Amino acid sequence: QVQLVESGGGEVQAGGSLRLSCAASGRTISNYPVGWFRQAPGKERDFVAAVSWSGGSTYYSDSVKGRFTISRDNAKNAVYLQVNGLKPEDTAVYYCAARRAYGVDQYYTRRSEYDYWGQGTQVTVSS
């Protein structure tokens, strides 16, 4: 079983930056694709970014492309989301998710494609 714990959220002003971390325990996720999603109050949980297990392929939602960067350190069993140029509309709880490996080095963008989820970390952006 994999446990995921997010950290690094907080309250920042518009234009600010944060580095969100997703630490895994229970087993290695070095061969698991990982994604970040976010959920604002009263809204659905939306895809933000994803990375293949090797780190060689990444994908971003249009709303964060050019501002957010997903990366992973398989030696540390962790995945990161660098969030720059924050806007008030980025305010949400951010979740990381991992998908059990099936040998294909690709990313995934749908919630239903992920098997493990963290509890989330709150990001609040003030104008």
Keywords:
mainly beta, about 130 residues, about 0% helix, single chain, 7-stranded mixed beta sheet, 4-stranded antiparallel beta sheet
Q: What is shown here, in short?
A:
The protein has 127 residues and is mostly beta strands.
User: Considering DSSP H and I runs of 4 or more, what fraction of the residues is helical?
Assistant: under 10%
**Structural class by secondary-structure content:** mainly beta
Cα-to-Cα separation, first versus last residue: 40 Å
Tell me the Rg in angstroms. 14 Å
Say how many strands there are.
11
The mean pLDDT is: 96
Report the principal-axis shape. globular
Helix-strand topology string: EEEEEEEEEEE
Low-pLDDT segments, ≥5 res: none
Strand content: over 45%
Major beta sheet, specifics?
7 strands, mixed
